Amino acid sequence: MLSKLPPKERQIVDLLYQRGDMTAAEVTDALPQPLSGSAVRTMLRRLEDKGAVRRSESERGFLYSPALSDQSARKSALSEVVRVFFNGSPTSAASALLGMSDRIEPAELDALEEMIAKARHAKGK
Q1: DSSP 3-state assignment of 125?
Q2: What is the per-residue pLDDT across 6-31, written as a single tens digit (0 to 9) for each?
Q3: 3-state class of 65 per DSSP?
Q4: Which among 2, 23, 75, 82 would be 20 to 30 A from 17, CA to CA?
């Protein structure tokens, strides 16, 4: 869903993932290219209608946050990358990542091995 957002709306959602809950004014101030406060509020309303952000009340005014958890958003984005660039093959994507092993720390390799073992166990092999 996030990959289908227009660039400015995606930029707003990305800010919310990076910085956490924000007011419309904070979003406006944090954007690298200036937009009017009314334009940002309109985009936040659209994002809320699309289900990409949530709005809650606080003493600071309305706070906006991503509707999807970080983990769900990552999984969705990665699924899209695997579909587009690796012909839907998670194995090809993992091979490409492991091809960058010179940048992977030993602890990260250990964590990957553990995840593979858990996935194998869950499949009953």
Answers
A1: coil
A2: 999 999 999 999 999 999 999 999 99
A3: strand
A4: 82
Q: Name the DSSP class of 57.
A: E
pTM: predicted TM-score of the whole model, two decimal places: 0.68
Q: Minimal CA–CA distance to 16: which of 58, 48, 60, 49?
A: 48
Distance CA(76)–CA(78), nearest Å, equals 5
Report, in angstroms and rounded to the nearest whole number, the Rg of the chain calculated over CA atoms: 19
Query: Strand, helix or coil at 35?
Result: coil
Closest CA to 24 of 67, 66, 55: 55
Vertex 49: Cα angle to 10 and 34 (nearest 5): 40
Map residue 69 onto helix, strand or coil.
coil
**Token couple for 81:** 């990358």
